[in-house]
Specification:
Layout (H helix, E strand, L loop, with lengths): L2 E6 L4 H12 L2 E9 L9 H13 L3 E5 L1 H17 L6 H21 L3 E3 L5 E4 L5 E4 L16 H4 L2 E2 L8 H10 L21 H8 L7 E4 L5 E5 L21 E6 L4 E5 L5 E11 L10 E6 L7 E8 L2 E11 L6 E6 L2 E8 L1
Amino acid sequence: MKKTVLLGMSGGIDSSVAVHILKERGYDVTGCHLLFTENASEDSPAALRAKNTAEKLGIPLIFSDRRELFRERVTDTFCEMYMKGLTPNPCILCNTHAKFIALREEADKAGAQFIATGHYARTLFDGNGSVGLFRAPTKKDQSYFLYRVPRDILARTVFPLGDFTSKDEIRATGASLGLEAASAPDSQDICFIPDGNCGAFLQAHLPEMPVSGDILDLRGQKVGTHTGIFNYTVGQRKGLGAFGKPMYVAGINAADNTVTVCNSEERFTHNIRAGRLCCTAGEFPDGDFNAGIMIRSTSAPVNARVGITDGIMTAHLENAVFSPCPGQSAVLYDGEKVLGGGIIF
């Protein structure tokens, strides 16, 4: 019997080519387009691309309206974290609390053995049948965004693009198949903020948040006025005003409604602390251990000495990193394998 798989189809080129790859590998594929954002519909451009791909490649496509789940677990959490002066990663929130949960439920309804997405990552099993999450051999690697996906879901997840080294190769394959998605641009914005104006979105959803307050230096002296803490991110340089030299956001204090700034040299650190830990590999090594650590999705892993005590991870990095951002994730790697990670504070 053919292996059955439910593939999350966004309408983009990655998940579109994933259909072809899975079919080539002998899977019986069903596509699933998740409706997440408030303006999502079965007639949106992305949904129509998914429909066209499914029809062209000869697979069924189902739609799943998960707007309530997405609003409660992603959008609302995103806003709540900003209210606390944190900067969340919406893709990690989505993968953890919405996308893979919804796909598992739809796979169970459809009787599919496996789940698949167009992420650039790999899952491998050891001799005991334990699943591991690994980096993909491409600069497009997305394992950072997946470290909090529950292990039982990873164990039945297939990443058809995991061994590809180039997005250009994926686009070329899509073009050769005549897929409309081959010419669609990559998504760069937060999906629920399509115009990219995060500040305006947060102001609209957090009307109780003050729209101005003090900008302080590291000594606590007022040096300016901010336009609402939701407009700022730790490490940010643009939009702070004129100080006579480049300045960066060093901290955001929601309780005091203040933004603290500093110069670039003061934003580098060798030390990271994180909580709300998630062990992707099943268990962390005993005692202190060496690992690579990523503090943002666009960075490369930095060698670090890591310790975990009472649910708090401390990491001393071999090379200083710029501006760790509270609310973002610090993800640990053993070579290519994802060990786990936590939320920076």
